[in-house]
Amino acid sequence: MARDNWGSKFGFVMAAAGSAVGLGNIWRFPYLTGENGGGAFVFVYFICILLVGAPLLFNEMGLGRFSRKNPVGAFKDTGGSKFWVFGGGILSLCVSFFVLSYYGVIAGWTIGYMYTALFDIPLDFDTFRANPVAILPLFGIFMAASTLIVLGGISGGIEKAAKIMMPVLFLLLIVVIIRSVTLPGAMAGIEYYLVPDFSKIGGGTILAALGQAFFSMSIGWGMMITYGSYLSKDSNIVSSGLWVGIMDTGVALLGGLMIFPAVFAFGMQPDQGPTLVFKILPVIFESLPAGGNIIGAFFFLLLCLAALTSSIAMIEVPASFFIDNKNWSRKKAAWVVGIAATVVGLPSALSSGGASIFTNVSITVFGNTYAGVMDIMDFFFGTFFIVIVALMTCLYTGWVMDITKISDEIAEGAPFFKKELVAGITPAAIWRFFIRFVCPAVIGLVLINMMGIF
User: In whole angstroms, what is the distance from residue 227 CA to residue 392 CA?
Assistant: First the structure.
């Protein structure tokens, strides 16, 4: 079976950036910024993206193009044992599939809020998300839309959709930012966000920035291995990867610029997590002069598009496994994954008050208690296993494989990667050092911190 390829570099960058850009860029990044010193956190985050995020991104894209396979095939066909195939390949498929199952629920909320904002319909967040009659159809609509895009294939579906959705997403961001920064009192939020107070940088700030940089770039999900496998040999992985990182970081930074001025202008607290989006911002939009409902609808459309660009990548990861390894048609693979994720996501959809059995279940891990199916799923598949997969991938390419095979792969289409900088040192040599030593150490620190060891 002939393997799909991206139709253009622009299409690949839009799709890969879209897979990285998601709800976390819009609410998680500002929320962490608010908890960790404002501008100081933004500064540390930017450094983490450059020193850790970019090397890991090149690593996964290089492995994908070298193997020309989905994550399972990437490890298996390059000589990985069952241990590496499971820890790096199968686990990454599970991450994308199970995160998709509850991510679509949250994305469905944005559709509901888009409608109610546009028509000025009052909506209580807790009542709304506990109502199965409202939640389940919205969840189904979002999952169906995601699946239909994947059905179109790489260039005809995912790439075509990304070329439209990503520019629209940036345009909507700019529209909401303009309104936010022109509010009376918005300057206090801008200063808090963009002027770093370096005295606020501590170990906790650095670890939080590392974690956000790590999660925001879709590292450890299998997405970049899968998308990289569709790249042609003459594609420049370095420049494409940098563009993906720039766009992902750009959306996060713009998300903060959109939220902080408005939050400060209305005298509210920025460290509200997901409730910042679904509880506080609708109040802000309602308080605006004429046109506030339009701005609100635009904002939730923005969130929906951000979620959609990520969800199609989450479907593509397991779907590519069935296409490559089981010789399924794209139509069969996309529908099976989409429908299965919807069914698996029902407990998460009902875990915010819709059904007590799914709402009241709890589990304590590493000293932290997670209540409700969605929170439990998010810890294991949206946090913990991502770190495990990224660490396994790093160790595999750095120590089990011949790492020069991946650096040579990256150098194809990017000849400067092998050019001497000084004293015989090349960008490829620097990258290999980071993948073998720096990145595993950093990922290890994030993992240890998550486990509550320090």
Answer: 19
Q: Specify the higher pLDDT residue, 123 or 285.
A: 123
pLDDT value of residue 273: 63
The residues near 90 (Cβ < 8 Å, ≥ 6 apart) are: 71, 72
Contacts of residue 225, Cβ cutoff 8 Å, sequence gap at least 6: 60, 61, 63, 64, 67, 70, 71, 74, 92, 393
- Measured from the Cβ of residue 164, the count of other Cβ atoms closer than 10 Å reads 11
Return the number of other C-beta atoms located less than 10 Å from residue 393's C-beta.
Answer: 30
Q: Which DSSP state fits 369? A: E
Beta bridge pairs of residue 363 = 370
Sign of CA dihedral 206, 212, 214, 217: negative
Three-class SS of residue 364? strand
Average pLDDT, the chain: 88
Contact 386, 393 (CB under 8 A): no
Does 155 or 119 have the greater pLDDT score?
A: 119
The token pair that represents 365 in the structure block: 């891990």
Q: Radius of gyration over alpha carbons of the chain, in Å?
A: 21
What is the mean pLDDT of the segment spanning 293-313?
A: 87
Tokens standing for residue 138: 């919205």
Does 122 have pLDDT greater than 70? yes
Alpha carbon distance 370, 364 (integer Å): 6
The rounded distance, in Å, linking the Cα atoms of 111 and 360 is: 26
CB 375 within 8 A of CB 129: no
pLDDT over 80 at 375, yes or no: yes
Give the helix/strand (H/E) hosting 27: none
Please tell me the pTM assigned to this model. 0.91
- Residues 138 and 349: their CA atoms lie apart, in Å, by 10
Per-residue pLDDT of 184-207, as tens digits, reads 888 988 988 888 888 888 777 887
Say if residue 3's pLDDT is above 70: no
23 in Cβ contact with 113 (< 8 Å): no
| 8 A C-beta contact, residue 200 and residue 290 | no
What's the CA gap between 149 and 276, in Å, rounded?
Answer: 30
Q: Which has more confidence, 122 or 320?
A: 320
Amino acid in position 247: M
Q: How many CB atoms lie within 10 A of CB 43?
A: 18
